[in-house]
Amino acid sequence: MAGHGTDEHPHGADRLCEAGDRVYSRAVRRGRVHRRDAEPVPCLLELALLHPDPDDMDWLVPTSPQEVMTRLLREVYEEISTSRRRVGSAVEAFEWYAGLGRQVQPAPAAEGPAIRVLDGLARIQAAMDEATQACTAEVLTVQPGGIRREAELSEGLHRAMALRRRGVRMRDLYTHVARHGHGLLSYLELMGGAVEARTLDEVTERLILFDRTVAFIPANAERTMALELRHPALVDYLVTVFDRFWRLAIPLTAPLPDTGIEGISHRERSIAALLAEGHQDAVIAGRLGISVRTCRAHIARLSETLGAASRAQLGVRIAQAGLDRSHSPTLTVPDQESPTAR
């Protein structure tokens, strides 16, 4: 862990600076420290000795000394062939952490914390790469937001290819709008039978599950922070949610069901149901993964088709046509997937 930190803190966790020593020790004794108290020692965040408290982002909680020792040992063993000179200083660091660890009650034996806040895109990517390397059987993902941008698909391609080489099964959920993205179709063609994709009118926020043991979800609207979840009850709950969405979703290779009403598309029926629930245009657009402009164009066509002169009248006509009820068509999914099923 040497070599990390800022110019003012050019050290690793095996030899903290004096200021870092004081703040980390106080965090271990008290259970957490305020974020402003850690501003003079950015090394503690960069070295993952402190991380945001999931319950209050203004506070930082310490990584347990036992976990720090385990991390140090792992890195020393990996570098021992070329870094034998570090062994002596690492042993001293282990003794220091062991002495500090005796001041607090040991945490239950586990792979790591049940909920971990990942602050910053680099830390999120590193955690995702680690989970990808450990994955052996299955990846489940929910991908909201409509048409997938080329940059988003390219960013995760290396992980997907590594999973495919190991025979890992992947299932992806998208909104119906994603069907119109050429980048997604190219990505699925490249992955072949390793990925199966289905679509819904709307899906939940982004979710990625590895081997039903670890999940990643966004922790803020900008997606610059994420939660890594390893609590079995939380992960099981998210798997159940995914499986229920999956059963309702339509395979990407199957056409969307007809609405039964001439001049009204499947998307316009979905918009009508959300309008009937009282949602604003921007909310409807976000849930369906389309732009507000596109959403309003569909609403205009709905009004014209149903002969409505105002929004109030449109609501009445939607109810009269039976478009105010959600619809979940019963699907018959073939037992054997076609070579292009995604």
Describe this structure in words.
- It is a single chain.
- The radius of gyration is 25 Å and the shape is elongated.
- Helix content is 43%, strand content 15%.
- With 342 residues, it is an alpha+beta fold.
- It has an 8-stranded mixed sheet with strand order 4-10-9-8-5-6-7-11, sandwiched between helices.
- The chain contains 13 helices and 11 strands.
- The longest helix has 17 residues, at 232-248.
Question: What's this model, at a glance?
Answer:
This protein is of the alpha+beta class and 342 residues long.
Total beta-strand segments: 11
Instruction: Work out the helicity level.
Output: 40-55%
> What count of helical segments does DSSP give?
13
The proportion of strand residues reads 15-25%
Largest sheet, if any?
8 strands, mixed
| Uncertain parts | 1-7, 327-342
Order of the strands making up the biggest sheet: 4-10-9-8-5-6-7-11
Give the radius of gyration: 25 Å
Terminal Cα span: 42 Å
**Structural class of the secondary elements?**
alpha+beta
List the secondary-structure elements in sequence, H or E: HEHEEHHEHEHHEHEEEEHEHHHH
Instruction: Choose one word for the global shape.
Output: elongated
Mean pLDDT: 80
Salient structural properties:
eight-stranded mixed beta sheet, disordered C terminus, three-stranded antiparallel beta sheet, 342 residues, single chain, alpha+beta, disordered N terminus, 43% helix
Question: How would you summarize the topology of this molecule?
Answer:
Elements: H1 18-30, E1 33-34, H2 42-46, E2 50-53, E3 56-62, H3 65-79, H4 87-101, E4 115-119, H5 121-134, E5 138-143, H6 150-155, H7 157-165, E6 169-175, H8 182-191, E7 195-200, E8 207-210, E9 214-218, E10 225-229, H9 232-248, E11 250-251, H10 266-276, H11 281-288, H12 292-306, H13 311-320
Parallel strand pairs: 5-6, 6-7
Antiparallel strand pairs: 1-3, 2-3, 4-10, 5-8, 7-11, 8-9, 9-10
